[in-house]
Each structure stands twice: as structure tokens, then as C-alpha cells.
Write a structure and sequence with these properties.
- This protein has 349 residues and is α/β, with parallel strands linked by helices.
- 46% of the residues lie in helices and 17% in strands.
- Strand 4, helix 3 and strand 5 form a beta-alpha-beta unit.
- Helix 9 crosses helix 12.
- The radius of gyration is 21 Å and the shape is globular.
């Protein structure tokens, strides 16, 4: 038996959880990185779910599903990394810690709880150093510096980002154009067609009325439409996507400075994830690429290599003692994780 096998017995499992507003995903692996179980459920954001307890239930549902597929129990998990949207303040972390202790007494005790923005960092650098920029339902930016310093955007974000930001800015442009307070835009016709509404007034009514108004998912469903109209050259839509790319780059620069990455010298890993940034030909991603060198000159971009939940799993492995700082170990683990992930559609938003 090798020293590695002694330190990480074959029966030990590792669990990574990535919870957002559109979905929660969980992966279970062996110490080698082989994924042996996957689970998926709904919104795991304590700010975005109907109640915080609903978010807890969704996260645990994904965990139970992943363990069930692995044919395992909670007690076999050596280390777990929870990367959860809505962990923005110390009391949010405390809420989850209390809830997990209550629901899972005596198990999952070796755990870390961080904002979901941290999930993807190891998808760029297995050591866990770098910046993650996520554009999904909303935006998330997080960084870990060379000395372990942490910073995430949380409620410091003062601009609409992700699909929510694209949708809200598009509605604003359409409503202002309707009132003669903004320039005419092709977004008007595109959004009316997308939502099947006859007039701008009908669209506004549906989005804001007291009863039976549009759900959050329905509101953000137009994000791809906004991107398409921007790609076609509509000035209002182009400005919306450029502004979002600019803001994401600015906050990534803040993350680099706050964690010492900007001062350390050498390349800075920047991992992109989320449906808005990962869409083929994404104009938001193009805008981010154009702006990023001004804020992080040494940025090295990683896009689409692994899903964020795989990064959370890598965190769990590292926190459980797997030596991902060793390039040889890291390469072997990454190969195993990559080759054993569930089908892409399982993790799609």
C-alpha cells in the first residue's frame, strides 16, 4: 500500500457542492478524483429561495442524490466543500453551519462554506490561486491570493450583472424608448416577440403587476435575446453588454488587488463560468476580454475547461489532504475528474 493510499483510504469520499439560483449540483469522488456520484436540485441561495430553509433542503437533496448514486452514506465523506450563492456575510456562513449541524448531526463535519464564486477557481489553477468571474443568473467574482487571502464581490456589486443585469437593462431601454426618453431600439420588437406580448405597455404590466406577474426565471429568459440583438449591432443592446463586460473586468481588478494577486507578479489565472459568459459567441465575454488587460495585465484566461462544481470538488479534495499543490498529483486528479464527469446536459442551466 502506498503512502497516498494510506493517507486517503479507498473508502473515503469527497464531496463538492455548487449552489446557485438556477440549480444546485453536487459531485462525489474518490481520492483519485474519479467521480462516482452526481446530484442536482433547485435553488440553493438563501437570498433567492422562497425561504432559507427551502435552500437548505435543495442543497441537501443534491447531496443525497449524489451519495445515493455513489452507493454511499454521509459518514463516508472525508471532506466537503460547500460553494453556495448567498454566502455573502459572516452570518450567512453561520446560518449554513447551524443548519448543516442540525440536519446532518455528526457527519459532514469536515467542511468549508464559501460563496459560490469561489467554486471555479481551481478549474483554472489546481492550487486554488486566482480569480473566478461568473456570469450566470447573476454575477459573482471571487479570488484567492498566493497567501490564502480571500475576497468576493458579494453585495459590493453595484451594477446588474449576469442574465438578471442583461434583462433589467434591456427592459429599461425598451421602456424609455417607448416614452420617448431613450433612443429607439431593436430590443423592443425582439422582447415583444420573445414574450408574446402585443405592446410595450402589456409587457410592462406583465412584469410588474401585483398578481400573476412574471417569475424571476421568465424575466431572465430574455438574456440570450439581448445578446443576439447586441451581436446584430443594435446600439442600445451593444452598450448594455459592453457595460456589463466593463464592470466585470473592474471588479476582477479589485479582486486581484485585494488578494495580493496584482502585486505578486507573474500570471494571474482568471476562470470564466456561467451561462452568460460561456454562451457561444457571447458579446459579454468579448467585452470582458477587451477590458480585462487594463485591470489585470497579467491575466491568463480559462474558459469552459471544467464546470464550477468540479472546482468545488477539487476544493474538497485539497481540504481533505489530497496534495493538489503537487503538479504530478494535480494532473492525475484533474484527468480523473475530467474523464468521469456526468454528461454536459446534466450540469447545464
Amino acid at each position: 500500500m502506498t503512502r497516498e493510499q494510506t493517507a486517503h483510504p479507498a473508502s473515503a469520499l469527497y464531496l463538492g457542492v455548487d449552489a446557485g439560483n438556477s440549480k444546485t449540483a453536487a459531485l462525489v469522488s474518490t481520492a483519485s478524483g474519479e467521480v462516482v456520484g452526481a446530484g442536482r436540485s433547485g435553488c440553493g441561495d438563501i437570498y433567492g429561495a422562497p425561504t432559507p430553509e427551502v435552500a437548505v433542503s435543495e442543497v441537501l437533496a443534491a447531496v443525497r442524490a449524489a451519495l445515493a448514486q455513489a452507493g454511499a452514506e454521509f459518514r463516508t465523506v472525508r471532506s466537503v466543500a460547500f460553494r453556495l450563492a448567498g454566502v455573502d456575510w459572516p452570518e450567512d456562513q453561520g446560518y449554513w453551519d447551524t443548519a448543516l449541524t442540525r440536519h446532518c448531526p455528526g457527519v459532514l463535519t469536515r467542511r468549508s462554506i464559501l460563496n459560490d464564486g469561489y467554486a471555479a477557481i481551481r478549474c483554472g489553477d489546481a492550487r486554488g490561486v486566482g480569480i473566478s468571474v461568473t456570469g450566470g443568473t447573476s454575477g459573482a467574482i471571487a479570488a484567492r491570493g498566493p497567501g490564502g487571502e480571500l475576497w468576493d464581490m458579494g453585495w459590493w456589486g453595484q451594477y446588474g450583472m449576469g442574465a438578471t443585469g442583461l434583462a433589467n437593462e434591456a427592459f429599461r431601454a425598451v421602456f424609455l424608448a417607448e416614452l420617448g426618453l431613450g433612443r429607439p431600439t431593436a430590443l423592443t420588437e425582439a422582447l415583444l416577440a420573445h414574450y408574446g406580448k402585443p405592446t410595450v405597455a402589456a409587457l410592462n404590466h406583465w412584469l410588474t403587476r401585483r398578481e400573476a406577474r412574471a417569475s424571476g426565471r421568465e424575466r431572465t429568459s430574455c438574456a440570450r435575446v439581448v445578446a443576439a440583438v447586441a451581436a446584430a449591432g443594435d446600439p442600445a443592446a451593444v452598450e448594455i453588454v459592453r457595460a456589463q463586460g466593463r464592470h466585470l473586468a473592474q471588479y476582477a481588478g479589485v479582486a486581484a488587488r485585494r488578494t495580493g494577486l496584482a502585486q505578486a507578479g507573474g500570471p494571474v489565472s482568471v476562470v470564466l463560468s456561467g451561462s452568460v459568459l460561456m454562451a457561444e459567441g457571447s458579446p459579454v465575454a468579448e467585452a470582458l476580454f477587451a477590458e480585462l488587460p487594463e485591470h489585470i495585465p497579467a491575466a491568463v484566461l480559462h474558459r469552459g475547461s471544467l464546470p464550477p462544481v468540479a472546482g468545488a470538488l477539487l476544493d474538497a479534495l485539497a481540504e481533505g489532504g489530497v496534495a493538489l499543490a503537487d503538479p504530478v498529483v494535480a494532473d492525475a486528479v484533474l484527468e480523473k475528474v475530467t474523464g468521469s464527469l456526468p454528461p454536459r446536459e446534466f450540469l447545464a442551466t
